[in-house]
Each structure stands twice: as structure tokens, then as C-alpha cells.
Amino acid sequence: MNKVILMGRLTRDPEVRYTQTSNTLVASFSLAVNRRFVRQGEERQADFFNIVAWGKLGEFCSKYFKKGQQVGIIGRLQTRTWDDEQGQKHYVTEVVAEEAYFADSKRDSDAGSANFDATFGAMPSANPSTGSDFEISSGDDLPF
Asked: Which of 72, 95, 111, 136 is surrounded by the fewest CB atoms within 10 Å?
């Protein structure tokens, strides 16, 4: 199983580019994730992860994610290799995003009153006003 779940802050705005062959949008950005524990007398350490989001998810990230914003990413690890002009082989490990979420509190976010779902890649709730998949208006509606 290859599943990665991260929550951290963007170190830069997402960078958008398009593939040469199919003109598919790809957004890339870096996420700083604080380590869980702090050693006494030391500052909190963070790990930095490269994130890649393709297609509609990449479009969502490039439109709504900004440097410094706290986000959650669910995806998978992927390693790529390539040779440069000098014949030197390069390796890179990155997280390919499958889902993206806002993790800042609403008042910390500068999204304002924009009309969009706070997640991308997850199934929406059947009843968004209550956050529950089921709603019962009164006991009279029950069949038992």
C-alpha cells in the first residue's frame, strides 16, 4: 500500500506548467510539515515535501492555495529518474496528490466569501448544512 497523509504549510505559491504531449496541467509546490516532537532546548524541526497535483486537482491547488497557508494532502509517493545534458542521473521523490484540503481555520483564511467546497477529491456530504449524510426532521417521519 502506498498512501501518504500530510498536513503542513506551503513554502511557496503553486507553480503551474503544462505537459508537452497532452497539454495537461500540473501544479507543483512544497509543503513544510512540523515534526511531532521537539527536543528540549531546540527549535521545532520541519520536513519539506515536494507535492505534484495533476489536472483538475492541480487547477484547484493553483487557484486557491497560497504561500503560508496550512493544507492537508492525501496522495502517494513516487520516485522519478532522468539524465541531464551531462549524462548525470537524477532522482526525485515526490508526493502525487490525490486529495487536497484547506486546514486553516476559516478566520485565518483569506478566502473570504468565495463559493467553493473546502475540499477537493472527496465525496461531498449529502446534507452540507449539517455536515451529516442523513437528516431526520422529526420523529413522525420514522417508519417504526
From this structure: 136
- Nearest Cα residue to 35 out of 68, 4, 8, 75: 8
Tell me phi and psi for residue 121, to 5 degrees.
105, -5
Cell numbers for 16:
503551474
Note the pLDDT of residue 134.
41
- Supply the CATH number for residue 70's domain: 2.40.50.140
* Cell 515534526 -> residue: 35
Q: Which pLDDT tens digit goes with each residue over 89-108? A: 999 999 999 999 999 876 65
Where are the alpha helices (H) located in 2-143, listed in sequence order?
55-64
Distance, CA of 126 to CA of 31 (rounded, Å): 31
Give the span between the Cα atoms of 43 and 10, in whole angstroms. 19
Interatomic CA distance for residues 18 and 28, integer angstroms = 11
Looking at the structure of the chain, the number of domains it has is 1
Query: Does residue 33 sit in helix, strand or coil?
Result: strand
Task: Scan for cell 417521519, then name that residue.
Answer: 141
For residue 126, the enclosing domain spans 4-141
